[in-house]
Amino acid sequence: MFDALRELRLWFSPETVRAEGETPDYRFSLANERTFLAWLRTALALVGGGFAVDQFLPHLADWWRIGLALALLLAGVLCTGRAVNHWVKCERAMRRGEDLPQSRLPALLALILGLVALAVVTVVLLGCAG
Amino acid sequence: MSGGLARCSGSPDRDPGLQPERTRLAWRRTTLAVTVASVLAVRTALHGRAGSGELPAVACAILAWLGFVVVAHQRIRALSTPRPPLLTHRAALLTAICAALVAACGAALVG
Lengths: 130, 111
Hints:
The structure holds 2 protein chains of 2 kinds. Chain A is an all-alpha fold. Chain A has one domain. Helix content of chain A is 80%, strand content 0%. Chain A is built from 5 helices and no strands. Chain A has helices spanning 2-12, 14-19, 26-56, 62-96, 105-125. In chain A, helix 3 (26-56) runs antiparallel to helix 4. Chain A is elongated and about 60 Å long. The model of chain A has no long low-confidence stretch (mean pLDDT 87). Chain B has one domain (2-10, 18-110). Chain B has 4 helices and no strands. Chain B has helices spanning 2-10, 19-47, 54-78, 89-110.
């Protein structure tokens, strides 16, 4: 819990990050920036998926449709947060010369997405019409 | 884009890995992704069952898109130098907030 708060503080205090270590090769920073953007695109793809479920599965029962769409939108918001968090942590690790941070989120995200995909397929196949 | 490439290959200390170019294209791809998500949000509002609270959500989505495009444009311009400055925390937070805002508008429109 404390760790999460400390990480959140890093988001808003670039000077804390920049005060440590030395500036890495700008190419590494740019690679880090591209990773950040890739996570942002993942988030946006999830948001798009939420809209797609809502728009293109109109025959679903309302609570299925809204539930799946909201799950995807929420996953999208989670990904935007992770994009910033991981970017800051990677930048700090590179400045300190430490190993890059590890994370369980990719596995968690894969699990959530797998479940959502399974739910969509099941619901569409069973014709769970409202 | 080809203009930026030509400018860089003319300078002696350009990066042979074309990192600034790749990063610039990543920003463009992301701008495209935001555009698609925002268009889907507006489409949801237009095709949605007539509700009352849709206009603020649509305005919010368009505003988020606009904010993202402005930040991305500034960053793309900053990246067209051979040795570009670092991405600022402010820009990173703003883009992430804009993306999350589109998602929030979606939740308001869907729910």
